[in-house]
């Protein structure tokens, strides 16, 4: 857990979240604001885009009341 304030939580992305990301990123309403409606993500595309271990970006899932509601990422500079 990276952050928690009452019902709001931010946690690191886990392998099990790939299905959730694929669901969100194949929804036309979401794609309107991310990559475009004609560019849906399947599991393979999610794996390539979000689970690159060489990438130093901290990828996170946002939860509210134990329900996943969003995705954020952080860049940590050293």
Output the keywords.
78 residues, alpha+beta, Aminopeptidase, four-stranded antiparallel beta sheet, 3 helices, 4 strands, 24% helix
Task: Describe the structure in brief.
The two termini are 21 Å apart. Helices cover 24% and strands 29% of the residues. Strands 1-2-3-4 form a four-stranded antiparallel β-sheet, with no helix packed on it.
Q: Average pLDDT value?
A: 92
How far is the first residue's CA from the last residue's CA? 21 Å
Number of helices: 3
> Are there runs of 5+ residues with pLDDT below 50, and where?
none
Residue share in helix: 10-25%
The SSE string, one letter per element, is EEHHHEE
Can you tell me the number of structural domains?
1
Instruction: Write down how many β-strands occur, each being a DSSP E stretch of 2 or more residues.
Output: 4
Shape: globular
Strand proportion: 25-35%
CATH fold type: Aminopeptidase
Structural class: alpha+beta
Notes on the protein architecture:
With 78 residues, the protein is an alpha+beta fold. It has one domain: Aminopeptidase, CATH 3.40.630. It contains 3 helices and 4 strands. A hairpin with a 2-residue loop joins β3 and β4. The two termini are 21 Å apart.
Give the topology, please.
Layout: E1 3-5, E2 8-12, H1 18-24, H2 28-31, H3 43-50, E3 58-64, E4 67-74
Antiparallel strand pairs: 1-2, 2-3, 3-4
């Amino acid at each position: 857990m990276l952050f928690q304030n009452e019902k709001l939580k931010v946690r690191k992305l886990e392998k099990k979240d790939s299905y959730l990301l694929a669901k969100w990123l194949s929804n036309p309403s979401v794609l309107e604001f991310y990559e475009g409606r004609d560019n849906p993500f399947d599991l393979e595309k999610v794996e390539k885009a979000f689970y690159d271990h060489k990438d130093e970006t901290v990828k996170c899932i946002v939860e509210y009341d134990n329900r996943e509601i969003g995705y954020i990422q952080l860049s940590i500079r050293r």
